[in-house]
Each structure stands twice: as C-alpha cells, then as structure tokens.
Predict the structure.
Amino acid sequence: MAAHSYGYIDENGLPTDSLVDYVAERAKGGAGLVVLGASGISHEGALNERMILNLDERIIPRYQKISDEVHKYGCLVFDQIMHAGGQLEPREGKRIVAPSAIPHEAYNSFPVELTVDEINKTINDFVQAARRAQLGGLDGIELKCDQGYLIQQFLTPYYNRRDDEYGGSYENRLRFLVETLDAIRRSVGDGFVVGIRITGDSMAVGEMNLDDAIRVCSDIENRIDYIHVNGATNSTYLGYQISHGDSSIAAMNFAHLARAIKKKVKIPVIAASMILHPYEAEQLIESGSADLVAMTRAHIADAEIVNKVTEDRVEDIRPCIICNQGCVGNHWNFSDVRCIHNAATGRERELGIGTLVKSLVSKRVMVVGGGPAGLEVARVLSARGHEVELFERNREIGGQLILAAQFPYRQGFRDIIHYLETQIRKQKVVVHRGVRVTPDDLIDANGDFDAIVIATGAELSIPPIYENVDADACLTISDAIKDDKVGGNILIVDADWRRHALSVAESLIQRQRKVTMVSSDFYVSAGADIISRVSYYSRLQNKVTFIPLSVVHAFKEKTVYLRNVLDNSIRTVKPIDQIIFATGVKPNNELYNSLKGKLSNLFQVGDCVDPLGVPEAVLAANRLARRIF
Ligand SMILES: Cc1cc2nc3c(=O)[nH]c(=O)nc-3n(C[C@H](O)[C@H](O)[C@H](O)COP(=O)(O)OP(=O)(O)OC[C@H]3O[C@@H](n4cnc5c(N)ncnc54)[C@H](O)[C@@H]3O)c2cc1C
Ligand SMILES: Cc1cc2nc3c(=O)[nH]c(=O)nc-3n(C[C@H](O)[C@H](O)[C@H](O)COP(=O)(O)O)c2cc1C
Ligand code: SF4
C-alpha cells in the first residue's frame, strides 16, 4: 500500500490511535508493505495541517506503536518523508522556500530561494526524520522525489534556476538528492531500507520526462534499495488529476513508466497508480513490468483485499469504484480519509475486521428498500446470523445508484450494487423484487418479523422557489438521461454540493446538446473536490457555458432571466428549451411516519432519514444492523 496522507493525526501532527488502527488493519488484511505518510520533515516543508509531522522526538513512540502493530502480521512499514518546496498555498506566517523563486501554476504562492545554509539544514532535516523513523522501529523510509515537490524541483531546470553548485548542469541539479541520500545512509546504516518515489514522467511542460527519470534512477541506484515509480505532478491541476485518476483515466496508467525504468536498473521497482484489481497487479508482476505493485485506493476500499485474493474470495472484495469521493475528496477538503461505501475505513476499531458479533439468537427482519442503505442493513444483519427478507418496489435493486451509474464515468456505482447483491445472495437474504410495501403490508407483516427496517430513500425534487418558471419546462436529473425529453438547448441549475450537475452536463454534451450551467457560487460544482472538478472541467470547459454567481429568476418564451447574486442585476440567456435542476432530493419518509409509534421494533435508515449520500447511508445502515438485537 503506497503512501497516502490519511489524516488521523492530532493537533501536533502526530499519528493518533485511529491511524495506528487504520494501518494495522491493512497489515492484518494481508498487505506486505505499508508506506506511511507523506510526513513533513519541517514546518516549512509540510504541505498542510493534515499530514504527519516528523519534526522531533515526539514522533518516535508513535512510530513504535505503529511498527509494533504492523509487524504482528508479518508486514513491513516505511515512512515517506517529504518537503513540499514551493508547492504550497500561502498561509499567514508560513515561509515558502524552493530551489529558485519560481511559482507553481496550481498554487498562488511565490517562494523564496533557499540559501546554501538552508539547503544544508534541509538535508539535515531529512536525515533526522529518517533517523527518528528508524528509532521508532520502522523498516525503512521512502524519499519523496515525485509529484513536483522539493527534490523534483531541484532536479527540474524549469524550477531550478540556481547558478551555484545546486543548479545549472545536470550534475549540480542532482546534487541535493545525492547529498540527501548519502547523509541519510550515513545515519541509518545499511540494514535500513532507503527508497525513493520518483515521477516517471511529469506530463507537464518543462518538467521531468521519462528520459530524465531514467537518467536519475540509473545514477543513484547504487545509493538506494528500491525505486517506486509514480507519474505526473501535483504542480499542475492536470497532473493532480492524472495521478489520482477517476474512472476517466485508464487502468495502470503509469505501468509503462515503471517498465521502462525497470529495464535500466538492477534494484527492485514498484509500479503504482490505477492498479485496482488483483488481476491487474498479477499481470504487471507476471509480465515483468515491476517487481512489486502498490495499490492505494484498493486498500482504502477493502483492507482485506490481499487475504481475499489468497483465500480465493475475489468476489468478496469491496471494489474501489474510483469515485474519489471519500478518499481524495475528503483529503483535499481537509478531512480524514474514508471510503464512499466502506463504513469501516477510518473506523477500524468500531467496524473493522473481527468486530462483527454473531447473534446468539437468530431473528427475522424485514427490510423495505433495496438501495445501498437497505442492502447494507441486510448484509450486516445476515452476516450476524439473522434471517432477512428485503422488499424492493422496482425489479432492479440499487436505489438511486441505478440512476447515478447511467452518467458518464459513473458506472462504478453499479459495482457497489453488485458487491452488496453478491454478499446478500451468498448470505441467503430473500429478495422480493417489484413489491411496493404499503403501511397495511407492514401492519400485516409485523407478526411475522421481529423487526422492520425502513430504507425507502429519497426522491429527486425541485424546491418550490422558482415561481416565474413554467413547470412543464422544468426537468430533474432523471429526465436528463431520457433522450426524447430533452431539447437541443439546456440550462442546468447546479445547487447540489456533489457532481450531479457536471455529470448531467457531460451526458448532454455527449448527446450533442448545447449546455449552459448556472451556479450561485463562484464557480459550478464548488462543493466537489478539486481533483474531480479538474477532471470534469478538462473535458467540459470548451463545450459548456459556465455562468457563476447567478440564480434563475424567470423563464418564459425560451428565455431564461438570471439574477446576479452580488448586485441583483438581470441578464438573459436564450434560446433555452428546458431547465434541468440538479437541486437535491427529498426524503421518502411517509411509510415510516405513518407507522411510527404504532409498531414496535420499527427502524428507519439512509436517505429517508437524511438524504446526505452513500457514505452516510451505508454507515448508518452498518451501525443500525449491529445494534438491532
Ligand atoms: C444521479 C444521482 C447521483 C448521485 N451521486 C452521488 C454521489 O456521487 N455520491 C453520493 O454519496 N451520493 C450520490 N447520490 C445519492 C445516493 O445515491 C443516495 O444517497 C443513496 O442511494 C441513498 O441510499 P438509500 O438506500 O438510503 O436510498 P435509495 O438509494 O433512494 O434507495 C431506496 C430504495 O427504496 C425503494 N423503495 C422506496 N419506497 C419503497 C416501498 N414502499 N416499497 C419497497 N421499496 C421502496 C426505492 O425504490 C429504492 O430502491 C446520487 C443520487 C443520484 C440520484
Ligand atoms: C487520499 C490520498 C492521499 C495521498 N497522499 C499521498 C502522499 O502523501 N504521498 C504520495 O506519494 N502519494 C499520495 N497519494 C497517491 C497514492 O500513493 C497513489 O499514487 C494514488 O492514489 C494512485 O494509486 P491508486 O490508483 O492505487 O490509488 C495519495 C492518494 C490518496 C487517495
Ligand atoms: S472513496 Fe471511492 S475512490 Fe476512494 S477508495 Fe472508496 S471507492 Fe475508491
């Protein structure tokens, strides 16, 4: 499992017990090596407050706790140590340093050039960080030379414009890395693993390409134990997106870089990125593209992925659907890493491996609704030994995810349904399809079941605030996929924090519609994480007209009147055939409300309580199913 700053740190940047649990769970689940971090080696070099800070001796007992836990399962643990250099957002009181005073296009900062004394201090910071990792019982460190951070900045002529011994010629630009590696090795000795993570190709104008990477790797391989090959760079928005790909990015997107580097060096090479399925990992090893593979989000989605492969239970793996919502999305919104459909991620002590308690007595439970909440309740209850019958009004189970999966690059939602459906089938849950449950049905069923769980979800809705708009010309996002319903010119109102509006726009563009998007925020889909936004905007920016800071005031005779939210001025957009409102949902709670207080052991869960999204629905369902009986 590759490094991924998970959060789970205290106010001093030190790993908490949640981090210990998170990492140990992956070791318990079969991983052979987990890489912590990235960890900042100095205040100046730390990316943000969400990363581990390896600044002084206080980290050592925390590392010790992690290594003790991880080693119990025969797994190795390294820490990735890094300095961000000029790739930092300006913050009050924070000095931003880099090899040269060159700004990065994805950051609004202007770094100052490091002096030679500061370079020596930075090398020492790396050495001390490595030493503390060793004292804490870790097995090695990985020096972060990729993603455009400090070491890559030294290597790259575009960012390194120095005219002293650390800049200019290739040998001079390599000097910082060589001196850092030599100093670390002198401190930690030969028995401690020292590797690097390098960008095989930055895919950015003026930055490192494959030839540069091969040259660097060949020149330093005698100083290190392994090379972990990444790609792209965080110094550009596009690079950000490519190195944390969503489903618009090809599987194993940097494997060719690992293969090319492996051909030129003798030490082990790790391939990474978009390796999500065990058979992809197997293919890379068998074809000789790499000696090891790193899987990151696959482990976030299922801590037991390796054990499930070795036990020949591949169909039980909870798949990473490359949605980037719970992991990348949370991380870039400064929250702890989670997974959209694995409630246990980040809650290992409460919901992780071995926490499910079998019930002493098997009870009969009726679940109404076959969306993710109902399916998760059924999965957990049946795993605990209860007899579960699930009733779904549609022929197909999956709830809102069936619709969500019909938008471009969102097919992964089908995999969530498939995973849950497989599990409940194996656990012998009886599924009644095409049965709309009524209050009378529940009163009748009450005697047959020991408990009833209502998971009836939510319905798309348009808030009743659009008074001057012809109702016939208003569509919801479910209409958007019906070709005969939508005209040629569509205006989309984005009032949902997720990516619905962008998905709808992309679907319409693919079907040759002209699309205008309106948001009351500073830009469309302001609530989505930066990486998802880059992904959508890179495809839509020249095809969709974006109108920020505006709301729909009126719509008549094919003309939409938009009110600017800053000065209330009105502008018109025409011709428009229909408006699609990506404006959220309303809970479908009538069934529960009609029987509340009349039946005992009646529960409700998911969007019918709070229409927040898949992670909230799945978490509430999982907890409820552990609590009933
Ligand atoms: C287009 C779209 C995109 C989305 N994208 C995201 C996203 O990116 N991230 C995210 O987190 N969330 C997203 N969501 C929201 C997410 O799908 C919901 O939060 C989630 O499905 C809620 O699960 P649930 O099981 O509570 O409800 P639902 O998924 O609504 O399932 C409820 C089920 O109950 C059934 N039902 C209702 N009444 C009865 C009855 N009387 N008898 C029998 N069955 C009944 C329904 O048919 C349905 O199958 C999206 C939703 C949509 C529509
Ligand atoms: C939440 C999150 C945080 C990450 N942080 C780091 C990091 O600190 N250092 C690093 O080298 N890579 C980081 N990555 C990138 C991953 O190591 C990996 O390269 C990327 O997720 C693609 O691999 P995958 O498709 O197996 O997930 C992060 C990824 C995620 C999802
Ligand atoms: S949140 Fe999405 S991308 Fe992240 S690990 Fe879970 S399924 Fe994968």
Observations:
- Residues 116-135 form the longest helix (20 residues).
